[in-house]
């Protein structure tokens, strides 16, 4: 049995992406786990998406619905508030993480509780609700299996959908064995046995909890309803059993009508877990007498989203439904995992969302992509991630040295005569390597290339010379 | 400015120069091809999720096999209460009482064939949400006329103001190496009984 | 005789003259008159994708000046064609990209041929480059051309759709991740046992070739050179 070393403690979250990625690349078990998991889910997604002959039409609709939501956000947010309130919910507004955390903590106290059970929610991770609660003397218990694993390991999530994707079954067994307290003796690494251990561990807590905290996948303006999509039933437990339910919902989660679910509930499960439908979807609208929580709160969260909304090109990042398909197909994510991104939203979506949510803090992330476009191809809401990456690169700051080099290159390329002279100079300058045909070592910054690849040398005769010769 | 006013103001400012929203195309399917046997598709999907499927209300007894005490919503039709189990009506059962029964037997509001989804909306014969959640074994009766091919056909049948639960197989997780394992916090056993009856106390054109 | 302009791209201009020569050979074999406007330089892709919009815009304008008078512009680079088609409208408002054809698009869609009369008696594996496949939607057009080549033995590349890790300045800025992607691509290429690895872009081929030259594996070759071969 191995000691538990949380991956996040090894990968420096504050380091620039290339540095953090280098550390992750040097962790063979992590890379193996990631390659196995992303490979499995890629194949499942491709199969169930391929089953629907109208997949592309669904994507087109979803993209347009979300674009429309963004344009109508004030109106839809107010309508949601009005309908949810009429149904007995209390709607709160939070400008930022601190405000959302403070409201949530106050509501927990008002309910006379010191503990809450939690459904997996990206919004609460984004605002670091658990950490904030701990600082206030409140405890938040994660109930999603993967979140539970991460919480027990004192690690950080590394994936939107499967926060513990970087652990394999044996590592998870070790974490349960050493950290769960009530783990069954002789626990094996059979996934069914591990799921059973989690069930037993959490059951009492579910049945006795008085307050739950959730996020939401969708908020329906027409009815004031919230929707949570899940698999294990921990969501249903949290949404049904406690007296008080607090849901923290990003303002971009709004959908105009219930009927929109006929589009999104086809796209989301197939894109995320690669299932035709997830085991459980819960929809609730305010308070229902005799059924579920008697106090229902909704905290509508901005926390940088209106920044994103202001950018004509970048705005499409708000269409994201957090399915994580883009992570699973990304060749960069597959090799580095999520921690290297240094943000709760990793992978391609993180690379366009993090720098917009926290301007100036993640300027390295738009470069963490080869622009291969695999993300755009699978995104169920058709976010043109490569387009936004290039756009953010064009907005962001540039190092002076690089700026000068790019400017010089452009100055030459914009003048055909200079360009031809430069090509001739390159051919002459490369004479010493001509016989070998390639260059193996170069000084910095070209050494970044030659670290793993040879560089070809310019040919003796250029195409231009050949063409001129021929024209004669 | 309070938070609400400030956020709304930020939204409006952000959208000042926004280009107009595109037209929403609606070219996707809203039904399966005519002639598709939707019951067969539903059964195929349910089996894929590792639910057990039975045909005819007489099979309820077999679906409940092994259960001595079975919780039911108070309005569950009498003809579904078959077999030797003791049927405990939910007239405000406590959590502990719910936890102590062996199974729960309910009806549903609709079922979607193509995704193998059974939908509850707290309507007739369905009871409240805790009833179908706490017991470890859920037996649900689906009438043939409640089965539709496509999700788009099912949504109009649900009460939008009522709490809804859409169930696609027993509780499951894919959190370990992204492999699906059945049975976590929700009912670990799901039995679906497809009832032939099209009329009876529960009949009536849904939507 | 129909006249087409040849845009050879800056990478080929500097390093790979055999590729544009091959394009000339193939087009002339099919009866086209090929023009090479000598004032051409670079489409501006490196600048645009590295975040230098103003530089890219100037290069896009220059492209318009050089090629504005042609109805059909053929280029042996999927990513440069995608640049003109996808990004020029945003940079300069120019619609010239619609007249820029990657070679296989021109041959299959415009000229309407798949068999260009080539002969190449070797085993070849084909890597569909990302920009060619996803941004430009080349689909299997280059492969259809290759299948029609006499004597060729085409073998499948495992995980063909995975990026080779080039990505322009990505290869320098995120050199380690790029190298890890390259290592997988090289291993998959070597596993085919092919003599040649063909692709539609010499920048990707430079990258893969730079790795293969150390780890061993098939020789990189632009598919245009295979189409030109009659050996
Ligand atoms: S960006 Fe698209 S693919 Fe990625 S998580 Fe969001 S919705 Fe899914």
From TrEMBL, chain A:
Residues 317-383 form the 4Fe-4S ferredoxin-type domain. It comes from the Bacteria. InterPro entries: 4Fe4S_Fe-S-bd, FTHF_cligase-like_sf, Helical_ferredxn, LUD_dom, LutB/LldF, LutB_C, NagB/RpiA_transferase-like. Keywords: 4Fe-4S, Electron transport, Iron, Iron-sulfur, Metal-binding, Repeat, Transport. One of its GO terms (molecular function) is 4 iron, 4 sulfur cluster binding. Residues 394-471 form the Lactate utilization protein B C-terminal domain. Residues 78-301 form the LUD domain. GO terms for biological process: lactate metabolic process. This is L-lactate dehydrogenase complex protein LldF. It comes from Glycomyces sambucus.
UniProtKB/TrEMBL annotation, chain B:
Coiled coil: none annotated. Residues 88-194 form the LUD domain. Transmembrane segments: none annotated. PANTHER family: LACTATE UTILIZATION PROTEIN C. This is L-lactate dehydrogenase complex protein LldG.
Automatic annotation (TrEMBL), chain C:
Residues 4-83, 124-208 form the Cysteine-rich domain. One of its GO terms (molecular function) is oxidoreductase activity. It holds the Pfam family CCG. One of its GO terms (cellular component) is cytosol. It comes from the Bacteria. PANTHER family: LACTATE UTILIZATION PROTEIN A, UNCHARACTERIZED PROTEIN YKGE. This is L-lactate dehydrogenase complex protein LldE. It comes from Glycomyces sambucus.
